[in-house]
């Protein structure tokens, strides 16, 4: 299991457009065979901050995801909506066991 949390800070005037573009990307992403989860979260105490929780089957799957048309469209669409570049943290699964995710 390869888990990535992506942290995104969006300009206030672009929040709704960002949400629309990201939901569209998430809907396509979850259909990829290498993605088990693709969660899109908005921070309660700062609604301009978002987190993507991406759970991949293998460490190679994020690179495959970045080659899809829907990811490329999303990345280009949201680029100018951001306050700062996206950041990410990569995690390893501890519990539940990997085979219980499928």
What's the helix count? Answer: 3
Order of helices and strands: EHEEHHE
**What percent strand?**
25-35%
CATH architecture: 2-Layer Sandwich
Low-confidence stretches: none
Distance between the termini: 11 Å
Helix content: 25-40%
What is the mean pLDDT?
A: 96
Most strands sheet: 4 strands, antiparallel
Radius of gyration: 14 Å
- Outline type: globular
Widest sheet: strand ordering: 2-3-1-4
CATH topology: Alpha-Beta Plaits
Multimerization state? single chain
- Structural class, please? alpha+beta
CATH class call: Alpha Beta
Number of domains: 1
Give a short summary of the structure.
Helix content is 29%, strand content 28%. Helix 1 (15-29) runs antiparallel to helix 3 (69-78).
Walk me through the structure.
Strand 2 and strand 3 form a beta hairpin. Helices cover 29% and strands 28% of the residues. With 102 residues, it is α+β, with helices and mostly antiparallel strands. A four-stranded antiparallel sheet has the order 2-3-1-4. The N and C termini lie close together (11 Å). It has one domain: Alpha-Beta Plaits.
